Amino acid sequence: MTFRHEDLPTLFHHTDQAAITRQRESTQATRAQLALLVTAAAAAALPPGPEVGSLRVFGLLSVLGYAGVLAVGLRASRRRARPQWQLNRSAAEFIKSLAWRYAVHGAPFGKDGGDAEATYRTRLEAGLDELRKMGWEDPRASGAVPQGGEITGAMQRLRGMDYRVRRETYVRDRLIEQRNWYRRRTEVSRRATAVWSWTIVLLTCLALLFALLEAFGSGPGARLTGLLSTAAAAGIAWNEVRRHHPLIEAHTLIEQDLAAMMVVMQTTITESQWPSAVYETERYVSPQHTDWLARHSS
Question: Which residues of the chain have pLDDT under 70?
Fold first, then answer.
């Protein structure tokens, strides 16, 4: 049996798309602010240039750039893009994890867990209620997602399969797929880290060179040095926002844990141990676990 991404509940798909949209909005706002800061600094560093009446064009561009930074920041604050992105991502991953645990008899939805469907709905609503208290907007409240679709037919069919089918489906369509996702994200982060690290080093070295020339009474002037410093600072800020380096370490560790768990699940785990093994695997891929590893990475 194949359990596809499309077989997850509609509530997951809506929340996942909301997280992607809000992440894009938050990222674009940060990128725009940094670009406007560099543009404003560049305009301020240029010579006086042409004038329109009593206004200097480059000076006006600098003013507009700094005003744009404030405007973008105010709009982002009102839209709450970053908090909503993180809340929707937490909700989506929570729903996805709970759905997989229910479908393959992961704890606490094993055969000996009593009424698994009632337990699933109770756990789901309890977890989402905690997110609602933090400001998450439940799409079911607005009618964007209909009530009652929290358990799909594919989830029920997989749950009704024997242990061997559930194990093979989970290892292939969840564990291996998730491990490959972490591997791809690690490679993307490595490339981005290399590009931005060398860019920051280049800008800093140029600023250092011009500062030395200025110290000896030559060089292009302090304005260009200040512009290069601003550009380097913007690069550092963007690198920190994207968290490339800590995520490389976090994703690498999780990938190693999943690879080890895959071997264990395929060789030594018994049916009685299966529910706790699934629960432990889902803990590895939770956003909270990733954030913890990223915060404590060396």
Answer: 48-54, 113, 219-221, 296-298
Angle at 265 between CA 263 and CA 269, to 5 degrees: 125
CB 197, CB 29: distance < 8 Å: no
Q: What is the dihedral of CA 43, 49, 50, 52, to 10 degrees?
A: 50
pLDDT in tens, 151-179: 999 999 999 999 999 999 999 999 999 99
**Maximum alpha-carbon separation in the chain:** 83
Residue 216 phi, psi (nearest 5): -95, 15
| CA distances from residue 223 to 56, 84, 189, 228 in whole angstroms, order as listed | 17, 39, 33, 9
Q: Is 113 left (phi over 0), alpha (psi -120 to 50) or beta?
A: alpha
Alpha-carbon gap, residue 209 to 215, rounded angstroms: 10
Tokens read off for 235: 């690069």
Q: What are phi and psi of 52, to 5 degrees?
A: -120, 100
Three-state secondary structure call for residue 251 = helix
Q: Where are the beta strands (DSSP E) in the chain?
A: 51-52, 55-56
Cβ neighbours around 76 below 10 Å, total? 18
